[in-house]
Amino acid sequence: MSKNFALLSFVPAIAYWYLEANYSLKIAVIGGMSLALLEVVIEKIFLKHVHEISKLNFFLLFILGPISLINEDGIWFKLQPFFTGVAMFLFLALKMKRGKSLFKEMMEEMGKQIHNEQFLVMIEKHLAYFFLIYGCFMGSLAVWSTTSIWAFFKTIGLYIAFALFMVGEVVYIKLRVKKIQ
């Protein structure tokens, strides 16, 4: 069921893209915000809780949406992925600075055995930088690109970039293991 909700997060971005192309900015922003609210409600009803990232995105859209309306500029609405990327980087970096690992905590909560904590922490560090870099990339798209390109990278482009990141991580780990042996 959770995988289906990951696709649900596409809906506000796609709706915003469609509405901005066919209607006024006001309708596009209100439509995007309405669907973000609906996403949180559906997640609460079907999953019985709302993921932290969904809460963050909801909070950001309900700050950035009205700023877009006041300034009559959709860029503010489109800056949500930038702020999410920076927030995720700061969250992971702060945990690591405190000597804690989000991945380790999640593995322990699931009752999974951790075989190599060093690699887990390394991946988490790289992931933090991935979020920062992708967030900055999305911020640049919001400022200098079309809404169509922004919507692509906000949706399927993120999954493509993340898949490439994970392939890179697997190759990097294999090279590190080979070097250690």
Question: How would you describe this protein?
Answer:
With 181 residues, the chain is mainly α. It contains ten helices and no strands. The protein has helices at 2-8, 10-22, 25-47, 52-71, 75-78, 80-97, 102-109, 117-144, 147-154, 156-180. The N and C termini lie far apart (41 Å).
List the defining traits of the structure above.
single chain, 181 residues, mainly alpha, 10 helices
Are there runs of 5+ residues with pLDDT below 50, and where? none
State the separation between the terminal residues, measured CA to CA: 41 Å
Order of helices and strands: HHHHHHHHHH
Amount of beta strand: under 5%
Secondary structure class reads: mainly alpha
Please outline the major beta sheet.
Answer: none
Mean pLDDT: 88
Topology:
Blueprint: H1 2-8, H2 10-22, H3 25-47, H4 52-71, H5 75-78, H6 80-97, H7 102-109, H8 117-144, H9 147-154, H10 156-180
Brief sketch in words of this structure:
This protein has 181 residues and is an all-alpha fold. The chain is 85% helix and 0% strand.
